[in-house]
Amino acid sequence: MCQLHLFETLCLQNGELFRLPCHEKRRLDACRHFWPGRSVTPLRDILAAHGIHEHVNAGVLSAGTFKVHIDYSQEDSSVTVTPYTPKHVESLRLVTADDIDYAYKYADRTPLAACLSRRGSCDDVIIVRNGLLTDTSYSNIALFDGTSWLTPRRPLLMGTMRAALLDSGLLHEADIRPADLPSFTTVSLINAMLPLGRLTVSTGRIEH
Fold it and tell me: What is the pTM of this model?
């Protein structure tokens, strides 16, 4: 039987690690769900063992943007750090997957990859579950209606950037259906590496 692996991806920018407490909480919730009763080594300690700290990282990590990937299981963990380059996304396709489940950050992304394989000539997909928009293959989404940014109330994954934007009042939850898309001008892809408005796609480039 294969051992379950999950992961967290953190943004390290100009020496500063962003939203570590949010990632700590999500990992703790996942560990308590899958491995109840087991002691959990804090992410902070795992990262520190690899020379990565919440503030004042030096040397090559002191300038630029890096993706910090922590893979973990019940028994062990590993950390990789790579320079970050945003994906090229200019078009999206709606794909339906009513049975998809990605409530935790599983290292096995097979269901998401299956959705992505249906993108056709588009760069990525927006997954529709039970008639409602959820996420792309690798990010939460936010849609702009000319006044406010709205995000699907029931995403596949409760992302840390999404949570921070909701807490700040910059983002609001709503049930969004494919038929609602003409009410919006822009969709922004958001995740730990992508703040609101960094990577956007015109809703006119969303194919059904």
Answer: 0.94
